[in-house]
Write a structure and sequence with these properties.
131 residues, 4-stranded antiparallel beta sheet, two-stranded antiparallel sheet, disordered N terminus, disordered C terminus, binds zinc ion
């Protein structure tokens, strides 16, 4: 029987943080169409949205290095208090599926956050760049 990870350990975490590792500052926003993950749409009511990524995660995404990206995120997840080894194993499996979904639904649109990380994303000046 498969047990789902607890809700408070779910990813991505959202907010003005990297949607992959939870770090800051956010450097890039990646356009992505919605997809199903754990029986729910990634973007609840929209057909597409943005995934925020820090410098390190952006480099892995740009390089299509999905295994190292999952490894990087797991290093951060393992720092959270109260996560058991079985939960970590479940989270890794979920992350692999999540990252695969992102890879398959990612659009060619990338926004670069050019002002610091203190301002909320919607108030931060964004510069469109081609990939
Ligand atoms: Zn990151």
């Amino acid at each position: 029987m498969v047990t789902r990870p607890q809700l408070n350990h779910r990813l991505p975490r959202g907010g003005n943080r990297c949607d992959f590792c939870g770090g800051a500052p956010v450097l890039h926003l990646y356009g992505c169409t919605t997809f199903l993950f754990m029986d729910a749409k990634i973007f609840d009511k929209q057909m597409r949205g943005w995934w925020a990524a820090c410098l390190e995660c952006s480099a892995l995404i740009t390089g299509d290095l999905w295994g190292p990206l999952t490894d990087r995120v797991m290093v951060e997840v393992a720092k959270r208090p109260g996560i058991s080894r079985p939960e970590l194993e479940l989270l890794r499996k979920s992350l692999v599926r999540l990252h695969k979904g992102f890879e398959n639904h990612r659009l060619s649109m990338v926004l670069t956050v050019v002002l610091g990380h203190a301002a909320p994303l919607e108030k931060t000046a964004l510069h469109l760049r081609s990939v």
